[in-house]
Each structure stands twice: as C-alpha cells, then as structure tokens.
C-alpha cells in the first residue's frame, strides 16, 4: 500500500490487523500475521495517483462490527458510511490517510469468517 507516512500506517495497520513488522528498512515496512498465516501487507512511500479511490479493497469481517469500529476509531480510523448490498452489511471506514476499507458483519456465508 502506498503511504504518505509509513510510520503512521505501520502503527495503524499492525494494531488493526494484529500484525507485526516482518521487515523494515529506511523507506518501507512489511507486516505479517505473528503465526505467519494469511497475506502480508507492504507499506511503502508513495501517493495515490489522481487523488481517486484507493486501489486496495479490504473487507474485515467481525462478529461485533460496532465494537470493532469503536476500537479502530481509537487507532485513527474514521467512519465514512454504511454498506448494505446483496445480503451483506457493514460499514465503510477510512484509515489515517483516507484509504477506505469495510468492516462487515460476519454472517452465515462460508466466505465471511470473523477476524475478531
């Protein structure tokens, strides 16, 4: 993910996902799950092109979305709106640099496994 301030984004996303810094150099940081499971997240300096929407589409599924959103807000996330489409419900948030992501209510579908 391109970031204006890598340090701010490392603090936010490592806390939000429960990840740790796998590698760090002068410019970039690679975050990973402590058990090595799941995808890694590379944070590096750079600006979004054209000021449009972020190119990353991240959905986090939670059993108690309101509680998770409250916690993410203490980390610097901002609530943008609600999402309700095709039986899936959740909230659109933005991280400290304005990249939007969703916190979805974990439902009965096989895809929606809660992270918290």
TrEMBL record:
<dbReference type="InterPro" id="IPR029068">
    <property type="entry name" value="Glyas_Bleomycin-R_OHBP_Dase"/>
</dbReference>
<protein>
    <recommendedName>
        <fullName>Glyoxalase-like domain-containing protein</fullName>
    </recommendedName>
</protein>
<dbReference type="Pfam" id="PF18029">
    <property type="entry name" value="Glyoxalase_6"/>
</dbReference>
<dbReference type="InterPro" id="IPR041581">
    <property type="entry name" value="Glyoxalase_6"/>
</dbReference>
<feature type="domain" description="Glyoxalase-like">
    <location>
        <begin position="1"/>
        <end position="103"/>
    </location>
</feature>
